[in-house]
Every structure is written in structure tokens, then in C-alpha cells.
Amino acid sequence: RPHRSDFLRIQVAARRDEESRCGYEAGAGGPKMSARDAAKIPKRIESIKFGLLDPNEIRKMSAVEIKTADTYKDDGHAYKQGLMDPKMGVIDPGIRCETCGNKHEECPSHFGHIALELPIIHIGFTNLLKTSLKSTCNTCSKVLLHSSAETHPLDPEKSEQDYYRDRVHDIMVKHGVGSREFKTIIKDIEKECAHKRRAICMHCGAEQGKIVLDKPSTFKEKKADKGEHKLNARDIREWLERIPDEHLIFLGMDKDSSRPEWVIMKVLPVPPITVRPSITLDSGDRSEDDLTHKLVDVLRINQRLRENRDAGAPQLIVEDLWELLQYHCTTYFDNQTSGIPPARHRSGRPLKTLAQRLKG
């Protein structure tokens, strides 16, 4: 008859076997799960929150920085730090992902990122930029509403800022942030801040100009005596970075999850390979996805811009390349943006980029 200790020995052996199969590594820190198994765990989504992506967040979730515009070498292998780097996932059977170590059925696939040489405007958020620039001071970046007491229309002890803050909070509770009423109150605040009465900032005394948007993404500031001057993406980013957190509610933004300057992108996320797989034609050649084609354009112009800046090229050439980078990023997000020609294939067919995919 087997002794009880034999049963325990069998249980321990079975558990060890199980642990080795599950990829546990017992070390000084106790049980540790390998990346390969962590990627396979099914996850339940608790909630979805829409917000803007912090550039540091993009860098953190990225598995590799993309630097070369080439995809595959002559021997069929992908370039390291190229647009088909195996760190971003795998589509060919038999190959393992370099980030999580899984094969193509089990790899969840990973993002990469491109560090842009000069910041560009995200075309989907030009209205948010317009609201932010119209509602804030061009020097101190505070919202153009009085913060001193006795400026509240009803309560002499409170300020105008308190009045609008209470109204926004009230609408958020009653109707929610996606409602028509919420959009209307933010529009009202923008109109009030852009009024002729606010031509001089009440916080720092600076003269305010009129903000004009030349579609699709060119902002200009018109001043009565000085004419108009163009605001480039770098100027706008510096302006928006100075906006205090407590004033973001007047722009309709949540200070805990978003900042307006994140709309001016310095880092571009690159979607995983499984989102834009290449196909092998009958001739043996590979045909790349439209998104990959567009990212190749972005990388090439980014590289030319970097080389010209390093070589000390004239400002005019740098600005031309900067505009070209803006054009490629705009058509990458939405290739049907009004006011600019769509990017096309050699055959003349317009490329289907992110917005067209989501519509489909």
C-alpha cells in the first residue's frame, strides 16, 4: 500500500511539470511569467475611454523605433528598424515574434513609432486647436475670462471663470460630455473669449489677435496694426503647453487624461504588421498595404528633413520639406481631406488610409 508521502511526492512532481510547461521561472522574486505566456492571456475590457495619446505613452507602448523606409532585403528577411521589423509581430507561418516569442496565431502584435524631426498637426483635431487658440491668451496662455471677484453675472463674490465652470459641470452631470448642450456651452465660451472686448488680456495685458484657420491645417494670427503672421506647429505647441490644467475645462477637455499640445505630434505611432500585412503575388513579388506605402513616404521626407537641417540648409528649403511632411501625415490619417490632393498609387488609384478604413 503506497505511503502518504508518495502521494505528496507525485503531486509536487506534477506541479513542477505544470510550472515548467506554463513558463514559470522561480527566482528570487517568486513565480514569474514569460512574455510569451503573458501575451496569450485573454483579457476582459472593463471600459473604453476616449482621449489623446501622450507622446511618452506612444514611446512606452512601442516595441521598436522605425528609422529606415525599406521593408524587405533581397533574401526575403525584413530590415531591422524597418517598417516590417519582426518586433512588431509576424504574418508568416513558422517565424516567431521577436517581442513576445509567439508564432503568428498567438502573437497579439505590437506597435512601433517614428520620431518626427519637426512637429506636425493631427488633421483630425484642427477644430480643437482653433478653439484652444481662440479662447486663450497668446502670451500667458490663460483663458480669456476674468478670474477676479465681482465679475460673476449673478454672485458678486465669485468670478466669471466660476460662472462658466459651474455651467460646464452642470451640463456634464445632466447631459454628458458627448451631448449637443456640451458642445454649445464650449462654443459660447469660445465666442465670449474671442469677442472684441477681450482684445487685451485681463491677466497679462498683451494684445490679442484674431485666429484664422486656412483649411486644412494652416493657422494665422491677424493683428489690427501688424497684419497677419503664420503660426507654425512648433509655435502652436509652445502656446498650448503653457495653458494651466485648471483652464482645460473651458476648452471641453479632461485635465486628467488629455492635454491640447498632444494634438501637435512629435511621435507617430506605427500600426502592427497584422494591421497592414503584405501579400505575395503569383510572380513571387510582395505587394505592400496602402498604410505601409504611406508610412514609407513619411519616413523618406522625415529623413530628408533631418539631413537638410543637419547640413544647415536655408530656412526656405526646410519649411518646404516641413510642409511636405505635414501633407504626408495628413493623407496618412485621412486621404479625403478637403483642400489637398489625395495621395495616389502609380496606377492612379487613391490610397485607402486610416479614415477610409474605419469608414469601410
Keywords:
alpha+beta; globular; 3-stranded antiparallel sheet; 360 residues
What's the short version?
The chain is an alpha+beta fold and 360 residues long. The protein contains ten helices and eight strands.
List the helices and strands and how they pair.
Layout: H1 4-22, H2 35-38, H3 55-61, E1 62-65, E2 111-121, H4 126-135, H5 160-174, H6 180-193, E3 210-214, E4 218-223, E5 227-231, H7 233-241, E6 264-270, E7 279-280, E8 286-287, H8 290-310, H9 315-333, H10 354-359
Helix pairs in contact: 4-6, 5-6, 8-9
Structure description:
The protein is α+β, with helices and mostly antiparallel strands. Helices cover 34% and strands 12% of the residues. It is built from ten helices and eight strands. The strands form three sheets. A three-stranded mixed sheet has the order 1-2-6. Helix 4 crosses helix 6, helix 5 packs antiparallel against helix 6 and helix 8 packs antiparallel against helix 9 (315-333). The longest helix is centred in the C-terminal third of the chain and has 21 residues, at 290-310. It is globular. The termini are far apart. The model is unreliable at 24-28 (pLDDT under 50).
